[in-house]
């Protein structure tokens, strides 16, 4: 299962948003780079799966958004792994944080 969130922040803020989300989610993000994830991205392994923070801009093949319902120049967060109910603590943390704008995507 993948739970998706739009993060109300621009691509250039990726590093600082990763730092904020690491505190909100209580995870340790590591920086990575892959064309599969649109270039630079951050990921954290957790017992439930993996957390990915990346740009919504898919550079391959033609600058399309990964999530069409979210601005291409903003960020997206994926919680990937166990069933949705196992992510309740993280979902609550994301939905109640006041430090950044977070919108759950379908």
Condensed summary:
The chain has 106 residues and is an alpha+beta fold. It contains two helices and eight strands; from the N terminus they run βαββββββαβ.
Could you walk me through the main structural features you see in this protein, from its secondary elements to its overall organization?
With 106 residues, this protein is of the alpha+beta class. The protein has one domain (2-105): Double Stranded RNA Binding Domain. It contains two helices and eight strands, in the order βαββββββαβ. The strands form two sheets. The protein has a six-stranded antiparallel β-sheet with strand order 2-3-4-7-1-8, with helices on one face. Strands 5-6 form a two-stranded antiparallel ribbon. A hairpin with a 5-residue loop joins β5 and β6. The radius of gyration is 13 Å and the shape is globular. The two termini are 12 Å apart. The mean pLDDT is 93.
